[in-house]
Design a protein that fits this description.
heterodimer; A: 405 residues; mainly alpha; ABC transporter involved in vitamin B12 uptake, BtuC; 2 domains; two-stranded antiparallel ribbon; 74% helix; globular; B: 237 residues; alpha/beta; Rossmann fold; six-stranded mixed sheet; 10 helices
């Protein structure tokens, strides 16, 4: 490094550090009780020291001081990668399912609860992945279909005592119908405009659920929803077939596991079919796809509806598990959350979306120790993630390819 | 002369209040290469977009094989044998070359798709070498070849080419045009929209000159090449 370069380098760094420390001090003093700037110095110097140390490490790394560690580590990582890529995806899939199936046997109530939550969001994420990752349409109102599915099962169960298994396809169908209605009017739009329309649709859905007192009981929600039932062998007096309610957490766990497996297989099959190829072509270049003879309007509508069906199924399960639904579970924040899972995990990649869902549900649980700063840390992690790995954690092969050039 | 395979009668079209085409008449006969030349903003690309119904004609008729196709949705046209290679190539950058070609045959499900793919690979050997590579990694000329190959996968009767020479080195342009000629000799009618008037006219049978949305001249391509006005305006002589 020549001297003027060196000077420039350290001046910009120095200015940055001074700025950070000046800003940090008053910001740390903001407390619920008011400003307490004087006493924050104690925390401030620790953070300042930590930051300086990290910067020092970063500079050393840039200068190549850690080559003796990073080079062999890189080689090991490389050989690990080639070893894991030898094993076909299906094997990983089976191993993953097997491990997940064993969780209720070993883990406690809390872990099961978190795992069920994760799996609901895996279903939602995979459904949205069809719309956003494959067909390339920005959907900000995906949670509406989750809500439609949940309320469909809730109302059918309470009013007509229909069983969960019958209602599951009905819920999916209702969500698909909702998507068809809104999609038919809006699929000619592209990009940002579509995002606004879907956002509006989700708000309308929530408002209807909130205000249609006679049907949905408004903000009080619907109670008394039945859990899924099942005929199972009972060995108490000989072998008889008994009807049981899957109310226990460890039993309902397997219901959502089956749903997740079904969703993964269905989405995988769709993605690798002719239809999936057409969706990807539409994402790449809609006009070109149209000129090539892809019926873009119907294909987009199909993507939107099939995505909604998976959302509706997840919704029906959600209603059956909570045995209570209310409109406040279906706010815009939830839509944003599902979208973040897809983007964070890697658009268009099934393992990526699963990992994204795990991360976004599990991380806030892990950060529970930070209490007040939980969401702050969470937001920070998401920001860093997008800065350093914009293509997502496990991007699809296609994004990796185009990321290189 | 026999019936034209494609005919535009008094076509008007535009974008919002801007009128891009002010009533143009074009006839294309089977087996021909027809060049449409003109300056920027003359309406060349709009003409092709209107034929494919991506831009709707506000008035006038488009006939293809004697059938009026104004109201046929654009994605039905490749099946009828009318396929466009859009301006700026517009391949699918993240799909592999093979998948790009498959997209060209999207509406087909016969058994001859593989044969057609072989034919395209035979025409453009470079595509076979790289068939597992993403389309976006190709060079400009190779992308143009891919775009033409993709259109050929639909077995077009009439191929609409929008500025195939755009942004390519002269040597590559020569190569592309010789392939276009070859495609034509195999029986595909070609409509060629070009800025590069000299090359376009020298290989065409007939030519149309567009200026601000009107056809100002139509003639045999050779006559246009020798026309002093055209030479002055478009050939830079």
């Amino acid at each position: 490094m020549t001297i003027p370069e060196f000077k420039k380098h350290w001046t910009s760094l120095g200015i940055g550090m001074v700025w950070l420390f000046i800003l940090l001090w008053p910001l740390l003093g903001i407390k619920p009780e008011g400003l307490e700037v004087a006493s924050t110095f104690n925390v401030w110097w620790r953070i300042a020291l930590g930051c300086s140390f990290l910067l020092f490490l970063y500079q050393l790394n840039k200068a190549g001081a850690f080559k003796f560690i990073s080079r062999p580590a890189g080689a090991v990582a490389g050989s690990m990668k080639s070893a894991t890529s030898m094993v076909p995806m299906a094997v990983w899939f089976v191993i993953g399912i097997a491990c997940t199936a064993l969780i209720p046997q070993f883990a406690g109530r809390y872990a099961q609860d978190v795992a069920i939550n994760c799996m609901i969001y895996v279903c939602l994420g995979l459904g949205l992945n069809i719309v956003v990752g494959l067909a390339g349409m920005l959907d900000l109102g995906y949670i509406a279909f989750y809500g439609i599915g949940a309320y469909t099962y809730a109302l059918l169960s309470v009013q007509f005592q229909l069983s969960f298994w019958i209602c599951l396809p009905i819920s999916a169908g209702m969500a698909g119908l909702g998507a068809w209605l809104i999609g038919y009017c809006s699929m000619r739009m592209r990009g940002d405009y579509l995002a606004i329309v879907t956002l509006g649709f989700a708000e309308i859905c929530r408002m209807v659920l909130n205000n249609w007192m006679s049907l949905t009981n408004g903000p009080n929600g619907v109670t008394g929803i039945k859990a899924p039932g099942l005929y199972w062998f009972d060995f108490t007096n000989g072998m008889t077939l008994e009807h049981i309610w899957l109310k226990k957490l460890s039993l309902i766990y397997y219901v959502i596991l089956i749903l997740v497996v079904f969703t993964i297989i269905a989405v995988y099959r769709l993605q690798h079919s002719r239809i999936g190829r057409a969706w990807e072509a539409i994402r790449e270049d809609e006009t070109a796809a149209e000129v090539m003879g892809v019926p873009t309007f119907y294909m987009k509508l199909l993507a939107y509806c099939s995505g909604a069906c998976f959302g509706g199924m997840a919704g029906a399960f959600y209603a059956a598990r909570m045995r209570f639904v209310s409109p406040e579970s279906f706010t815009f924040l939830e839509s944003a959350m599902v979208l973040s899972m897809v983007v964070l995990g890697g658009m268009g990649s099934i393992p990526g979306v699963i990992l994204g869902a795990l991360a976004l549900i599990a991380l806030p649980e892990i950060f529970r120790e930070f209490e007040l700063y939980r969401m702050l840390v969470f937001g920070g992690v998401m920001t860093l993630m997008m800065l350093f790995r914009p293509q997502g954690m496990l991007p699809s092969k296609r994004t990796m390819r185009s990321g290189k050039d | 002369m026999s019936e034209p395979i494609l005919e535009l009668r008094d076509i008007k079209a535009g974008y919002g209040s801007i009128k891009a085409l002010k009533g143009i008449n074009i006839k294309v006969y089977e087996g021909e290469i027809v060049s449409i030349i003109g300056a920027n903003g003359a309406g060349k690309s709009t003409t092709l977009m209107t034929i494919c119904n991506i831009v709707q004609a506000t008035s006038g008729d488009i006939f293809y094989k004697g059938e009026r196709i104004n109201n046929i949705v654009s994605d039905k046209l490749p099946k009828m044998g009318l396929c466009q290679v859009p301006e700026g190539r517009r391949i699918f950058p993240r799909l592999t070359i093979e998948e790009n070609l498959d997209m060209g045959a999207f509406f087909r499900n016969d058994k001859e798709i593989e044969d057609d793919k072989e034919r395209v690979f035979g025409m453009f050997p470079i595509l076979r070498e790289r068939c597992k590579q993403a389309g976006g990694t190709l060079s400009g000329g190779e992308q143009q070849m891919l775009a033409i190959g993709r259109a050929l996968m639909s077995r077009p009767k009439v191929l609409l080419l929008d500025e195939p020479s755009l942004g390519l080195a002269p040597l590559i342009v020569k190569q592309i045009f010789s392939i276009i000629k070859e495609i034509n000799s195999l029986g595909t009618t070609i409509i060629l929209v070009e800025q590069n008037a000299k090359v376009a006219l020298s290989m065409a049978n007939r030519g149309y000159v567009l200026e601000t949305g009107n056809v100002v001249m139509e003639d045999e391509a050779k006559a246009l090449l020798n026309n002093p006005d055209i030479q002055k305006a478009y050939l830079g002589e």
